[in-house]
Amino acid sequence: MRKLLLASSALVFAGSAGAADLRMPVKAAPVVAAVPYTWTGCSVGGHIGAGWNRTSFTDPGNSAFFFGFPTPTLAPVGSSIGVNSSAGVLGGVQAGCDYQFASNWVIGIGGDVAWTDIHGAANDPFFVGKNGAPVPLSTRTEAIASLTGRLGYAWDRYLIYGKAGGAWARDRYSITNLNCTFLATCNLSGSTDRAGWTAGVGLEWAFAPNWSALVEYNHYGFGNNSVSFTDPALPFLLLRYDVRQDIDVVKVGINYRFGGPGAVVARY
Fold this sequence. Notes:
Layout lengths: L1 H21 L8 E3 L7 E18 L6 E2 L2 E2 L9 E5 L3 E14 L3 E19 L12 E20 L2 E24 L2 E25 L2 E21 L2 E24 L7 E3 L1
Antiparallel strand pairs: 1-13, 2-5, 2-6, 2-12, 3-4, 6-7, 7-8, 8-9, 9-10, 10-11, 11-12
């Protein structure tokens, strides 16, 4: 009987010890937390889009003579001829750097350049050309570039922003079938590099640690420039017309962002 009591006591003690072990606290596994996304850093990328060109020609009153006759005018002095383009394609590259501060605000600087096919055409509504045929005017923007600053507000991986700065464009113009004199028909061409300003708004989305996509609208204003026009067949003829130009662009793009949001950290 004594041996039976000792064996029973041993079993009870072993069971109590096992239960105590089961009740001992177990250290929780660490919680892995991601570092919040930051827009601080630099990026490079590309874009495609569409642009619209609004151009107007004004004749300041050319006073030159050709073969003893006054050179022709496009429009009465003080009047202008408008040329509106249909949508033209564009594509290019961009680069920039941003700094995020005060939790949600982002300031940055960037530049872009695009090659374009923004063009338009119109007929002179005031005068006709040789043999009573119209006088066509055409415009083409071959390249456009900008250097801008931007200020935006970020919600984690989304950034809405405005931008403004300087802009440049490479343009070509033509005026054909212009009735220079009863002896000649002028087919004039001119080109210029224009400087102006740009302003726009956009939305950028960081869809992966190092990648973001954007959609953007920009307006470019290039003011009124005096442009020289010549005819290769009539080398002694030089005409100058005032040309005003505005361009609107809508584009989408993708950026590779150096650095990313940072590594994950373990939180206990």
